[in-house]
Specification:
By secondary structure, the protein is mostly helical. The protein is about 40% helix and about 5% strand. The chain contains 20 helices and 11 strands. The strands form 5 sheets. It has a 3-stranded antiparallel beta sheet with strand order 4-11-10, with no helix packed on it. It has a two-stranded antiparallel sheet with strand order 1-3. Strand 6 and strand 7 form a beta hairpin.
Length: about 550
């Protein structure tokens, strides 16, 4: 997957939906002519495994790059409309908590039980590979490793949502209609074994020819085992990644936006696109600044925008927090955007920022103009926070001429591996190693760092995860796995509102800045949301399971 454009070209389509049925109901005979053809040659088998790689893409786009980013459930991101049919309606309702966390609502918009369909396909493929495969044993083992890497990705997505799940492997004779849940420990062990097998049997990235490689498996293990709280396994996997020669890109923006084909040595797993082959995405089109459309008298972009809380998460470029108190009222004093560290400028567009040869205008009446939250009747083209997303948006993409974008989706990168290692080292009392990893992250953007211990070190790890990995699909899940999401803000996601910077043009070259709420009620994290509800369809069809205690 070093250059996944090749794989996408072979697959030819991007899935936008997967059956939500229990995978037992989707089982197919394992002795069809098509199975024999698929596994007759290495080339045919690789085509089919390419198709299964698509499920990795689907998992990622469901919660990061799709129409709904999980940052919308946190203090990072605000969806810009409350109208029926707009993603902002249910994202904001979910963020408000009860009474919006009833079972059906949660399952439709945050559930992942439908991953079982893809898991069944991976299991069936591994079984068929050894039943019908005519290729060399070396190729069989490599293809099995690719399939187990994909299966681990899918099971991880279930585990972080449900904790106790149904485990099936490639022994298709053991598939039954009724099967009990496995323990949480057994679930994480299953994922560990899949990734361990993949890491030991996949080739180095230089030999993978655009397919899964061992670096991806080791890197993903650092993420999965961090959730499992198996810190020794995180550290071991991180050390294996370090041996493979990955480095941090000198320019922070390049970490996510530069392709591996162009030499990005930080990206470990990256999905690439090709407009000439009509393999594109709509992320730019949905999230770009509204003025990109307005200057052409069209309407679009601004599906969701960064909050004032996220802006205030960034340090000065010389280190240390900014005192934002003067801007928590009404003032004509210009906010200290120019004083903030490089990751802010690579992540968030603000009033006056340079963008596509123009200046961003997030003031009322500007091209990128502000609209108040809740009363906003539009569904696109305005900011309700005074900001726009810059990170992962392709500045060279003309959204008027082309709806489809081709900027890569970077799924795993070396900076995350370092942060995963830092957290594991902190929990293992390896203070020096944790500090060393944090220092590497901050050195990239020239931020000073002094070694820390105890609660100060933990605060530094939390800070770096929020800022370094902003909008990459981690923050909501981090707060859940740390068990703090139910606590009051700013520790958790309870009892707070997100804010906007409403800006008025004074007509004399100055602006008036007004700190206003971008919510109409306090946000709440219901404690039962630490585990999502099991779908009723599973309970009705499987006699050996019952609803999780939190949802009975």
């Amino acid at each position: 997957m070093k250059n996944l454009t090749k794989i996408l070209l072979l697959v030819g389509i991007l899935f936008t939906s997967i059956s939500c049925n229990k995978f037992f109901d989707d089982m197919k005979p394992a002795d069809s002519v098509s199975d024999k053809v698929i596994w007759a040659t290495t080339a045919n088998a690789e085509y089919y495994v390419n198709y299964l790689y698509e499920y990795v893409y689907v998992v990622v786009t469901d919660q990061t790059f799709g129409n709904v980013m999980t940052e919308g459930y946190t203090d990072m991101l605000k969806y810009t409309s409350f109208n029926p049919g707009h993603p902002g309606l249910f994202v904001t309702q979910m963020a408000y908590g009860n009474p919006y966390t009833e079972r059906n609502f949660v399952n439709v918009y945050l559930g992942g039980w439908h991953r079982y369909t893809a898991i069944m396909k991976c299991n069936s493929a591994i079984s068929d590979l050894y039943t019908y495969g005519k290729m060399s044993n070396e190729d069989k083992v490599r293809l099995e490793a690719e399939l187990k890497f994909t299966r681990a990705f899918l099971y991880f997505d279930l585990m972080k949502r449900y904790k106790e799940i149904i485990l099936y492997d490639e022994d298709m004779t053991k598939y039954t209609k009724d099967k009990a849940l496995s323990s949480e420990a057994d679930g994480w062990e299953f994922i560990y074994q899949d990734l361990d097998f993949a890491a030991k049997h996949l080739p180095d990235r230089t030999l993978a020819n655009g397919r899964a490689d061992k670096g991806m498996a080791w890197a993903f293990m650092t993420r999965a085992m961090l959730y499992a709280k198996r810190y020794d396994d995180v550290i071991t996997a991180a050390e294996e990644v370090e041996k493979l020669g990955y480095t941090l890109e000198e320019n922070y923006a390049d970490a996510t936006m530069k392709t591996t084909a162009a030499g990005n040595n930080e990206a470990i797993l990256q999905w690439q696109f090709d407009r000439s082959a009509n393999i594109t995405h709509t992320f730019d089109y949905n999230y770009t600044a509204g003025g990109d459309f307005a200057i052409e008298k069209q309407k679009g972009g601004g599906l969701a925008t960064p909050t004032q809380e996220m802006v205030e998460s960034y340090e000065r470029k010389t280190g240390g927090a900014v005192d934002w108190t003067p801007w928590h009222s009404t003032t004509t004093q210009t906010p200290p955007y120019d004083q903030l560290e490089p990751r802010f400028h690579a992540t968030i567009l603000y009033n006056g920022a340079d963008w596509k040869g123009r200046k961003i205008q997030t003031y009322v009446g500007g091209y990128d103009g502000y609209e108040p939250w809740y009363n906003n009747t539009s569904t696109a083209g305005e900011t309700t926070t005074g900001y726009y997303l810059r990170k992962m948006i392709d500045e060279s993409h003309n959204v008027i001429d082309y709806k489809g974008g081709v900027a890569p989706f970077t799924i795993l990168r070396y900076a995350e591996v370092l942060l995963n290692k830092a957290e594991a080292c902190y929990h293992s009392n390896m203070t020096d190693a944790a500090n060393a990893a944090i220092r590497m992250i901050r050195n990239r953007v020239d931020l000073p760092y002094t070694d820390k211990g105890g609660s100060e070190l933990w605060a530094a790890i939390r800070q770096e995860r929020k800022v370094e990995l902003a909008f990459e699909g981690h923050w909501y899940w981090d707060l859940r796995r740390w068990g703090v999401a139910h606590e009051d803000y700013p520790v958790g996601l309870n009892n707070y509102q997100v804010h906007a910077m409403k800006i008025e043009d004074n007509g004399d070259g100055t602006f008036t800045y007004d700190y206003v709420s971008a919510d109409h009620m306090n946000r709440t994290f219901d404690q039962r949301m630490y585990r999502l509800p099991m779908p009723e369809s599973e309970i009705e069809s499987n006699a050996l399971v019952e609803q999780y205690p939190e949802w009975r």
